[in-house]
Design goal:
Layout (H helix, E strand, L loop, with lengths): L1 H13 L23 H21 L17
Length: 75
């Protein structure tokens, strides 16, 4: 949540772009403030996606038959 708050504050303070090397910014319109449901919905979608990947990666795999490493070679 701290990263989300930091990003929103930085976005609000800088408009659409950070000033770089003191150059004049082109005459582009400033973006509109995101709706009250858009930010939490995007955050929730990102969290659910990360949880799905973590769940899939942490799920135990099906047992596979192992070959005995100490078996005597056949003649």
């Amino acid at each position: 949540m701290l990263g989300l708050a930091t990003a929103l504050i930085a976005w609000r303070l800088t408009g659409w772009a950070l000033p770089v090397f003191g150059e004049d910014l082109p005459a582009l319109p400033l973006p509109h403030w995101p709706g009250p449901l858009l930010v939490p919905a995007t955050w929730l979608l990102a969290v659910l996606s990360l949880m799905a990947v973590a769940f899939a990666a942490g799920r135990p795999r099906a047992a596979t038959p192992s070959t005995p490493a100490t078996a005597a070679p056949r003649a």
